Amino acid sequence: MCKAIDWHCLPFSISQHDQVFNCFGRQFCLHFETFLLGTSPVYMAFLRFMGTEDEAREYSYSLEVGGNGRKLTWQGVPRSIQDSHQKVRDSQDGLIIHRNLALFFSGGERQELKLKVSGRIWKEQ
To answer: Among 20, 42, 65, 116, which is least packed by CB within 10 angstroms?
Structure first.
């Protein structure tokens, strides 16, 4: 296992953000995006690998978000950076959090978003 990922969610008005991690001598890009899924505002986080699809299959990752005694976990294989973020988003291949659930996780009066996404990256044997 390489590294824990800690990342704080952005306000819904910010449409996307990327953060690069070095792990196992390779680079991974955590992509976070807000968009409408139908008519529902959602947050989506997924990991892309800076390399080919075959190389990406050598790794796995998990992302977790939670609050108020609950948690939501996503586990998958990172997508190659050769796949655009739009392609990954459209396939819904990542952690998707509906705004109402995100606000519930944030606690309080469901007015302010206070989410922390954490995760792990590991190499498959």
So the answer is: 20
Q: Is the pLDDT of residue 13 over 50?
A: no
**Residue 118: its pLDDT value, please?**
85
Helices (H), 6-112: 53-56, 85-91, 99-106
2.60.210.10, 3.50.50.60, 2.40.50.430, 3.40.50.300: which CATH number matches 4-123?
A: 2.60.210.10
The tokens of 78 are what? 């990172």
Question: Are 116 and 95 a contacting pair, CB within 8 Å?
Answer: no
Question: 6: pLDDT confidence band, cut at 50, 70 and 90?
Answer: low
Q: Give the whole-angstrom CA distance, residue 77 versus residue 121.
A: 9
Backbone angles phi, psi at 64, to 5 degrees: -140, 140
> Taking the complete model, does pTM exceed 0.90, yes or no?
no
Q: What is the pLDDT of residues 94-116, one digit of tens each?
A: 999 998 898 888 876 666 777 77
Bridge partners of 40? 37
pLDDT of residue 103: 86
